[in-house]
Write a structure and sequence with these properties.
Blueprint: H1 3-28, E1 37-41, E2 47-51, H2 53-77, H3 84-110, H4 125-152
Helix pairs in contact: 1-2, 1-3, 2-3, 3-4
Length: 153
């Protein structure tokens, strides 16, 4: 199997996994979520704006699929040259974990609130960033390893 086909399988699997989890987590908990849900908070922690769950998920999925599509093309076409697969793997790791983390964090923050204005303060953004950094590093390692395997094939 060539590097490009391995890369496409990896990217396709990662993209689908993140998209399915982005949909599954909020939908499994939707009976415990207010309608609309809070999606933005002020610096003091009060909810700033709201959206329906469907619109929120659609927005996040469109962003994720657009980012995954662009970085997939960059990796496959070799636009990034020497370290193309590594950069694409890192970007997909970071963006995928941040998008999924944002959806999960927003869902958990809205959980059991009678109204979006009653949601608790948004916490755990630091863990979200740490998870993004770790996923980016893992994506970089996997992309670099794929490039090394290709050189020896």
């Amino acid at each position: 199997m060539s590097v490009r086909s391995r890369y496409l399988w990896f990217v396709g699997g990662w993209t689908v996994l993140i998209a399915l989890l982005m949909i599954a987590v909020p939908l499994l908990l939707r009976t415990r979520l207010p309608e609309p849900i809070a999606i933005e908070w002020t610096s003091s922690g009060a909810p700033k704006s709201s959206s329906s769950l469907r619109d929120f998920l659609f927005d996040k999925l469109v962003w994720w699929l657009a980012v995954a599509g662009v970085w997939s093309v960059f990796g496959v076409r070799g636009v990034l040259r020497r370290r193309g697969l590594a950069w694409a793997g890192a970007a997909l790791g970071v963006f995928g974990s941040l998008m999924l983390g944002t959806v999960v964090l927003t869902t958990l923050t809205n959980l059991n609130a009678p109204d979006f204005r009653d949601t608790v303060d948004l916490h755990a953004q630091g863990w979200l960033l740490l998870g993004g950094a770790l996923a980016g590093w893992l994506g970089w390692r996997l992309g670099s390893q794929s490039a090394r395997v290709a050189a020896t094939d």
